[in-house]
Amino acid sequence: MPDTTTIQITVQTWQALNSRKLPDDSFDDVIQKLLQDAEDSEGSQSHETTATTEAPESTSEWIELPDGVPNRIDETEARATIEASIQFIETNNGATKRQLVENVMPDHPLGYELPELAEGERFRGAWYRRVVKPGLSKSDVIKKPKPSESTWRYVG
Question: What is the pLDDT of residue 68?
Fold first, then answer.
């Protein structure tokens, strides 16, 4: 067996690689093919085209919707909101409810009104309570805060 190593990749990169896999392929097979394609394209098209592992535009199909998401909320948008929350937590090495409300909710309001929170004021809205919190709790890449803590952690 050849030498192996473990690497960390984002969920989006994993999804992009996984979408390229054939039933019997390993991720190494996919990466080797991408590298070979990149080498082949460099020879035939100068250096303009290289292989890409960008995720498809919609990558949130893998997110399991929690029970209790209001029927009026589009499932795709709810998944995108949970995915954006996961990405924010990963990128920022953790996040509190307030940080999610201030940084994710403006781009993913799900029809809820954006709050204007005063310093120290807690957000009590359904956006977090009915969608984000239960969605993060169902995720296997996120660690829920202990009762004495307030920060969600990425454990991908």
Answer: 86
